[in-house]
Write a structure and sequence with these properties.
The chain is an alpha+beta fold and 154 residues long. The chain has a single domain, classed as Sufe protein. Chain: A. The protein is built from 4 helices and 4 strands. It has helices spanning 3-14, 62-75, 80-93, 127-141; strands at residues 27-33, 38-47, 50-59, 146-148. It has a 4-stranded mixed beta sheet, covered by helices on one side. Strand 1 and strand 2 (38-47) form a beta hairpin. Helix 1 (3-14) packs across helix 2 (62-75), helix 2 (62-75) packs across helix 4 and helix 3 (80-93) packs antiparallel against helix 4 (127-141).
Length: 154
């Protein structure tokens, strides 16, 4: 297993950033990975079309927790269209079929530390763990209150 992947996942699992609850979130959603039982709650505060605050909590595996933590660090200040492009780039990175077509190297969003999760291409069964925070964030931005990874194709 790639050392960078292992170190980042363990660090964000043991000491997740933006873990907890927000006072008066503008958007919130509960997400579930029906295959493994992970559950995640994401809360956001948007101001003038940008995420100004992000928090999450739930009962999740190390990969889902680390991804939610990394995601929270990355999306502050972003707009929903920017997050959608980032989500598409991440899905392509971890090997989700049919995603990433049309992304060009010069316009692909910077994934930052999320790029360390590229190791998931070697572990297809764990992709949905990493996709749960993304699905929950996207659903929250769409005004949904519940979602599941069953909506995703991985």
């Amino acid at each position: 297993m790639n050392a960078l992947y292992r170190d980042i996942v363990l660090d964000h699992h043991r000491a997740p950033r933006r873990h907890g609850a927000l006072e008066q979130p503008t958007h919130a959603c509960d997400g579930v990975n029906a295959l493994c039982g992970d559950s995640l709650h994401v809360e956001l505060r948007l101001h003038e079309g940008r995420i100004t605050e992000y928090a999450f909590r739930g009962e999740c595996c190390a990969i889902a927790t680390a991804t939610a933590s990394l995601l929270g660090e990355r999306v502050i200040g972003m707009t929903p269209p920017e997050i959608a492009a980032l989500q598409q780039a991440f899905a392509a990175l971890v090997g989700v079929e049919g995603v990433g077509a049309g992304l060009l190297d010069d316009v692909t969003p910077d994934l930052g530390d999320l790029a360390a999760l590229s190791e998931l291409t070697r572990y297809p069964a764990r992709r949905k763990c990493a996709l749960l925070p993304w699905a929950t964030l996207a659903a929250a931005l769409a005004g949904e209150t519940r979602t599941t990874t069953e909506k995703d194709s991985a």
